[in-house]
Structures are given as structure tokens and as C-alpha cells.
Specification:
single chain, about 250 residues, alpha/beta, 8-stranded parallel barrel, 12 strands, about 30% strand, globular
Length: about 250
Amino acid sequence: MLAKRIIPCLDVTDGQTVKGVNFVSLQTVGDPVELGAKYAAEGADELVYLDISATVEGRRTFADLVARVARRIDIPFTVGGGIASVDDAARLLDAGADKVTVNSAAVARPELIGEIARRYGAQFVVVAIDARRTPEGWRVTTHGGRHLTGRDLFDWAAEAVDRGAGEVLFTSMDNDGTCAGYPCETYARLADSVPVPVIASGGAGTARHIADVLTVGRADAALAASIFHYGTLPLPVLKRQLKSMNINVRI
């Protein structure tokens, strides 16, 4: 059985790592290069960096940051935020990223997924999906959760994989930053519906939350931010606790 992955996520704006609740009330939590190096040394399996401002100038600055991260860490890392073309993806992959993640631009123009996958391979493309629970079911959102679309979470995930996504990173916008746990039944349904790895994001507060989404939720990886940034549950402690619950993680 493949080991489950633990992935710290670093949201970056103006060159600093920030964290909020439901993508608002952002607070600065540290330098993204130093934090990334710290998490790598503590046993992170991968990292995700998201440029959450993603202006044209920000993307150029972000590419410089990606190059600095690549020089400091020796684990895979994924980058995203504002990627709307193959050239945007190329800029970040050429700077040293191992994978790119696309989100809002892919919802607006799904062909983007295939364009990147055809140039670089599906293993380089992560489709991030932010969704909220509505009376009609789980609906995809864009622009950091601010715009609700009519797309169904499961239909969009299946289409994204058909178009070339090598992984799906699903964030529950209702749970993001709350540290109250993941919607595990939704993750289990998603994992059963697509033939690629599913990364769970949004709601980690305890080792039990992460253990549940990796077992009950059948996710291949758990992404978290607050518990690492605020020192609530350091990576070495988390992995030891997961091991004690018979979760197959790399120590």
C-alpha cells in the first residue's frame, strides 16, 4: 500500500505566507521559503504554494519565489494561483516547481487542463476544486470561493480527469480554516469516482481529523495549513500520532 502523504499548504501574497478562515481575515505567518524549508526538514512529503493575489506582477514575483524554494528544499512541491495559460504554467515549472495546480481558469476554460497535460504530462497537472455545500448539492466555486458556479463537484472532477488532470485537490470551503474536520463522506465519494489521487484540504484541526479523511474519506493525501503555521500540531508529532493509529505515513 502506498504511504499517505502529508502536505503543508502555504498561501502567499506580497511575498509572505498568510492564513485566514474561509479565505478571509488573512494574517501573516512567516517567510514562505523559510517555512517550506522547515516543513521539509520536519518530514513533509510535499508542499503546496498558492499565489493568492496572482496579479500579473505577482506571478512574476512568484516565479522568483519558486526558484528560491527550489534551491532550498529537496521534496516535491506544487505551485498555483492565477495560472490561465500554458505559458503561465511553463514559467513556474521552469522555475523549479514539480507540479502546477489550476482552478478558476480551468473552470472558465476546461481546455487549459489538456493543454498543460499534453505539453508536460498529466503527472504535472493538479486540478484544485473549491466547493461549497448547497441545497442542490456540492457546487464548485471560483476566485477563492467568492463566486458560486452551477457546476457539480463530482461531475467537474470527472471531467477534469478526463481532460488530463493527474490529481484532484478538493477544498471544502465550508470547512477551510475552521480546524473542525473534513467532510469525510464527500471525500470518500470523490475518491471512488475518479481514478487519480485525491488530496483533501480544508478543516484539519487534529490528528484524528486527518486520520479520518485518509481512512473513512479514502483520500490519498491530506493538505493542511493552520495546524502547522500556528504550531498546533507540528509535523513530527502528527506523523507519530498517525502511525499510532495504523496510518501508513513516512516517518
